[in-house]
Specification:
By secondary structure, this protein is an alpha+beta fold. The chain folds into three domains: about 170 residues, Jelly Rolls, CATH 2.60.120.260; about 220 residues; about 210 residues, Phosphatase 2c, domain 1 (4-Layer Sandwich). Strands 3-2-4-10-6-7 form a six-stranded antiparallel sheet, with no helix packed on it. A five-stranded antiparallel sheet has the order 13-22-21-18-19. A five-stranded antiparallel sheet has the order 14-15-16-17-20. β6 and β7 form a beta hairpin. The longest helix is centred in the middle third of the chain and has 55 residues.
Length: about 625
């Protein structure tokens, strides 16, 4: 820096000659391809380059060809005598630099194009000290797929190294400082994207949180990449294009977000647009991993060629047009939906403007227009972030109120569950009864009741209502209530009564039910309404079975009488045991149930649940006590 100040003081620009501290090329021409001789003859100072193209005709639009040459003439004699000339080269590409036909340096790999972005390198050479004749500087250039479809020539300057470096970083500062609104807005957008992604992680039902977080993170990815490039951060060219490629799925996420936010299905036309955007994103991402020539060609065919560029821009415009469709009809919007819809339409307008300027036939300088539109677009998206956050807060308040109401309903359901599954079993000393109950949800449709009848008989009623949850539990509670006061009825008569109650209630559905009366002397009377037959000492009892309750208005239920010996075990199951299903889809089945039926009730229920519970599981085991134990 001291040297630059010294030169600026003692060699003012008012001097007539040899006062420049840094000079640009006098003239430059370029040519596509590689030197066919392979001996770097295109770097020779005496090469006839009259057929080469002037740099004024460089289009800046990326091509499928990665290899180019640039030849520039410098006049070192224009520099002040005290300047020790160095050549500064900067650009987003790999290069080799030649001075009067001699290579003086390189950056990156000219064969593969791999390079470090954000470099500005100074090269010293004896040729630059010759002030009495022009110096021919040739640059062998290799491009890789770049950001926004732009392919820029490297910047060249010859002069004082410190002065040129200061000028370079001053330009970097001006680029970044001029976009501070964009950077601030996207810092907010990226933070919101991470926050909403975390919210979705804890509540998977709010699908719109996933889509908008991915959209915002993709946009932030693109802007971070642009910021790194604008601020001359040194990072890999592969990473630069990969970040650009994976950020191109924004439109697909935006379409999914708008329709998920308004709880609507994505229309067919927008599904087609979504597929186009996904193809565009996938092709660019794949091209980042291909060899150089294939990568450049695929990128050109996907994004740069006229027709693909036009299709992609139209798809982006249509993606933005999904906003009014998703919010339609606007007159039906309420509360925070109104400002949210307003800022979303503003975002749509910015996206349309951002896309339209990319049409190649308009001949607009895309980079310049992007820089002009981007701050306004950033503010619009930041407004969506704020509005959506406020809407989310309102939804959370509503959700909390709903959860409080639901908690009250669940408390009532638990009280109903206590009626279906009594905490204590009414039994006599003649019978040992063990029970296990595992509902598939908070409340279930299985129920059982154990009662000692006036004449000393023990009645066990076990049922399973079709369906799950609170509705099944209410039906089960109704059947249990209807069974009260019928102690004098036999098992078959009781089932007939419950069948009539269920039919007349018109609640729909059906229920299987099993009733058994156990006498102290071991005799048992059984009736079955479509329920699983019990197991006696591990073997299934053969019983007459009738239709489940609620299927027909009138049904007779046959009764079967058996006699049990002391120590005999009866095991009653609900179908949640035999219909348990493993992760591979295998059923627990009746064979496993029979083999397990001699185990305690809790063990049978535990094994079935571990196998793969899908329905309520209820197990009752009934054992006739030995005569001595019964007397005790």
């Amino acid at each position: 820096m001291r040297k630059a100040v010294f030169l600026l003081i003692f060699f003012p620009l008012s001097l007539a000659a040899q006062t420049a501290l840094s000079i640009a090329p006098k003239q430059c021409v370029w040519k596509k391809g590689e030197d066919p001789d392979g001996n770097m003859g295109w770097a020779a100072p005496l090469l006839d380059d009259s057929d080469w193209t002037p740099v004024s005709k460089w289009t800046r639009i990326a091509t499928p060809t990665p290899f180019f040459w640039l030849r520039c003439s410098f006049e070192p004699g224009q520099l002040a005598p005290a300047v020790e000339p160095q050549l500064q080269v900067s650009g987003d590409l790999a290069w080799q630099v030649f001075a009067d036909g001699r290579m003086i340096g390189e950056s990156g790999n000219p064969a593969t194009g791999n390079h470090t972005a954000g470099l500005a390198i100074d090269y010293a050479a004896p040729e630059f000290s010759e002030r009495n004749h022009p110096i021919l500087v040739a640059v062998r250039m290799t491009y890789t797929p770049g950001v926004n479809g732009v392919q820029l020539l490297p910047a060249l300057s010859l002069g004082d190294a410190q002065l040129q470096r200061d000028a370079y970083y001053r330009a970097v500062y001006e680029r970044t400082q001029g976009q501070w609104v964009t950077w601030v807005c996207y810092a907010l957008i990226a933070s919101a994207g991470l926050f909403f992604l975390a919210l979705y992680w804890f509540d998977r039902t709010q699908r719109f949180l996933l889509w908008i977080s991915l959209a915002w993170l993709s946009l932030a990815d693109l802007r971070i990449n642009e910021f790194l490039g604008a601020s001359a951060v040194h990072y890999s060219s592969f990473l630069e294009f990969f970040l650009y490629a994976i950020g191109q799925n924004v439109e697909a996420f935006v379409i999914l977000f708008y329709f998920a936010l308004n709880r609507r299905r994505v229309p067919v036309v927008f599904t087609i647009v979504l597929v186009i955007n996904c193809y565009y994103w996938a092709a660019l991402t794949v091209s980042a991993f291909l060899p150089l020539q294939l990568s450049m060609q695929l990128r050109f065919d996907t994004e740069i060629s006229f027709w693909m560029n036009t299709i992609q821009i139209l798809a982006t415009v249509l993606s933005a047009a999904c906003v009014p469709v998703a919010f339609w009809p606007l007159r039906a919007l309420r509360g925070w939906q109104i400002p949210l819809a307003a800022v979303c339409h503003l975002w749509m307008a910015m996206d349309v403007a951002y896309s339209v300027v990319q049409f190649s036939f308009l001949g607009i300088d895309v980079t310049t227009m992007f820089l002009k539109i981007q701050p306004y677009r950033s503010v619009a998206i930041a407004a969506v972030v704020v509005s959506l956050t406020l809407l989310l807060v309102q939804r959370l308040r509503t959700t909390n109120r709903d959860r409080a109401a639901l908690q009250g309903e669940m408390d009532a359901a638990r009280r109903i569950q206590q009626l279906l599954v009594p905490p204590m079993i009414d039994s006599t000393s003649s019978w040992n009864i063990d029970a296990a109950y595992l509902p598939a949800r908070e409340v279930g449709g299985d129920f059982y009741r154990c009662r000692v009848l006036p004449r000393g008989t023990h009645r066990v009623l076990l049922g399973d209502v079709s369906g799950k949850g609170a509705a099944a539990a209410m039906t089960a509670a109704m059947l249990l209530g209807a069974s009260e006061g019928h102690q004098e009825s036999s098992p078959g008569k009781l089932l007939a009564h419950l069948n009539g109650v269920l039919n007349s209630s018109q609640v729909g559905g059906f229920a299987t039910c099993f009733c058994i009366d156990l006498a102290p002397d071991g005799s048992a009377t059984l009736a079955n309404a479509g329920h699983l037959a019990p197991y006696r000492n591990g073997k299934e009892l053969k019983l007459a079975s009738s239709l489940p309750l609620g299927v027909t208005a009138h049904e007779d239920y046959d009764e079967t009488t058996i006699r049990l010996a002391p120590g005999d075990l009866l095991t009653l199951l609900s179908d949640g045991v035999v219909e348990a299903r493993s992760a591979t889809g295998e059923l627990f089945g009746s064979e496993r149930a029979a083999a397990l039926s001699t185990e305690p009730a809790q063990e049978i229920a535990r094994v079935a649940q571990h196998f793969g519970q899908e329905d309520d599981i209820t197990v009752l085991t009934l054992t006739l006590a030995p005569a001595g134990a019964a007397h005790a």
